[in-house]
């Protein structure tokens, strides 16, 4: 039935969900490392969520129809189902934004727990131990009796 309706690619949905989950877990792990290391907290912007969800929907619908019919669907945006699907992308984008903020707050809380107190700003130069160099007094060469160049004169 999926192949007949042009949705045969949905057979790969479990693999795509596994890849997306792995990418999200990797990104959250990297963010956890940033929070633990230097206390930096990320603040997600809502603009990518509001723009990407409808843009991906538009691309998906056009490519589905292109692959199914073999011609580019110039009139796809005029269909009622297309407009309804496009409008429904905004609530899903809002839910995705809320979930992303929740996950980042959870990671930040976990990072603060694992990281302990926030690091103090310490200069590397101030943190190095100071080494005192003691230099021996220099004795001028003429004071030693060797005023001229060359080997010393031997007394026989």
Tell me what the structure shows.
Helix content is 60%, strand content 0%. The protein is an all-alpha fold and 156 residues long. The relative contact order is 0.11.
Strand-helix topology:
Elements: H1 2-5, H2 13-38, H3 47-69, H4 80-115, H5 124-127
Helix pairs in contact: 2-4, 3-4
Q: Which stretches are poorly predicted, pLDDT < 50 over at least 5 residues? A: none
Give the H and E element order: HHHHH
Computed Rg: 35 Å
Distance between the termini: 118 Å
Strand content: under 5%
User: What structural category arises from helix and sheet content?
Assistant: mainly alpha
Helix content: 55-70%
Dominant shape = elongated
The helix tally amounts to 5
Characterize the main sheet. Answer: none
Tally of strands:
0
The overall pLDDT, averaged over residues, is 78
Compact summary:
This protein has about 160 residues and is mostly helical. It is about 60% helix and about 0% strand. The model has no long low-confidence stretch (mean pLDDT about 80).
Characteristic key phrases:
mainly alpha, single chain, 156 residues, elongated
């Amino acid at each position: 039935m999926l192949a007949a309706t042009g949705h045969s690619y949905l057979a790969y949905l479990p693999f795509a969900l596994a890849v997306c989950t792995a990418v999200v877990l990797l990104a959250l792990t990297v963010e956890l490392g940033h929070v633990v290391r230097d206390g930096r907290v990320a603040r997600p912007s809502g603009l990518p969520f509001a723009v990407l969800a409808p843009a991906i929907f538009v691309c998906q619908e056009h490519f589905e129809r292109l692959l199914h019919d073999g011609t580019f669907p110039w009139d796809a945006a005029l269909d009622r189902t297309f407009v309804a699907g496009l409008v429904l992308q905004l609530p899903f984008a809002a839910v995705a934004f809320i979930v992303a903020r929740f996950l980042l707050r959870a990671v930040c809380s976990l990072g603060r727990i694992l990281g302990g107190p926030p690091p103090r700003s310490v200069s590397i130069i101030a943190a190095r131990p100071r080494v005192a160099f003691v230099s021996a007094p220099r004795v001028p060469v003429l004071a030693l009796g060797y005023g001229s160049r060359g080997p010393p004169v031997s007394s026989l």
